[in-house]
Amino acid sequence: MSLTLTTPHAETPALTLAPREQEALGHIAAGRTYLQTARHMGLSKHTVDAYLRRIRAKLGINSTAELTRLAISLGL
Question: How confident is the model at residue 46 (pLDDT cuts 50, 70, 90)?
Answer without folding.
Answer: very high
